[in-house]
Amino acid sequence: MASRRRMLLKVIILGDSGVGKTSLMNQKFSNQYKATIGADFLTKEVQFEDRIFTLQIWDTAGQERFQSLGVAFYRGADCCVLVYDVNVMKSFDNLNNWREEFLIQASPPDPENFPFVVLGNKIDVDGGNSRVVSEKKAKAWCASKGNIPYFETSAKEGFNVEAAFECIAKNALKNEPEEEL
User: Fold this and answer.
1) What's 163's DSSP letter?
2) Among residues 31, 4, 43, which one has the least CA distance to residue 178?
3) pLDDT tens per residue, the chain (181 residues)?
4) From residue 150, how far is each of 5, 52, 117, 153, 177 by CA, in Å?
5) Is residue 163 part of a domain?
6) What's the CATH code of the domain at 155?
7) Is residue 181 part of a domain?
8) Count of domains observed in the chain
C-alpha cells in the first residue's frame, strides 16, 4: 500500500458580489487563472498527514447571471465555503439562498452532512464600527445548519484566513474517497 497518495479536493466559494471572495483566495493562494466564463480558478498543493493533495478553489463570481453555470462548477465539490460581509446584512441573509442553491446544483449524496464553512469577512472595515451582523447571530445560523464551522476574517489584513483555509482543507478531506490521481 502506497503511503503517499495524491488527491484532488474541489472547494467552491459562494457569496454575494463584493463580500471579498476573490480577495480571500488571493490572500492565501497564487497562480491565478481567470476563466472567461465567470469564475476564478486557483490551485495549491498541500501536504497533510503524509498525503499530497491539490486544493482546487472555484470562485463563481457572485453575480446572478452566472448562477446557471452552477451545475458544472458545483459537481464533484468536496467542500463549499459561504462568504458574507459582516457590514452588509443582505449578504448574510443571502447565505441561505447560496447554501440551498449549492445543494440543489451539486446534489451531493449526503446533503445533511456535506461540509460547509462560513466566513464572515471584512471585520477590519471602519475599525468594526460598520458591523451589522454580530458574531453571535452568525454562529447561531451556523449551529442551526448542523454546526457549520465559522470564521471571522479580514482578507485585507490576512486575519484568520490561514486558519479558515486549514479548516476548509480538513473538511474537504473528510468526504474525499482515497483515490490515486
Assistant:
1) H
2) 4
3) 444 556 788 999 899 888 988 788 776 554 444 444 566 677 876 666 777 778 888 876 655 555 556 677 788 899 999 999 999 999 999 999 999 989 998 999 999 999 999 999 999 999 889 999 999 999 999 999 999 999 999 988 889 988 888 888 888 887 655 544 4
4) 29, 26, 6, 10, 25
5) yes
6) 3.40.50.300
7) no
8) 1
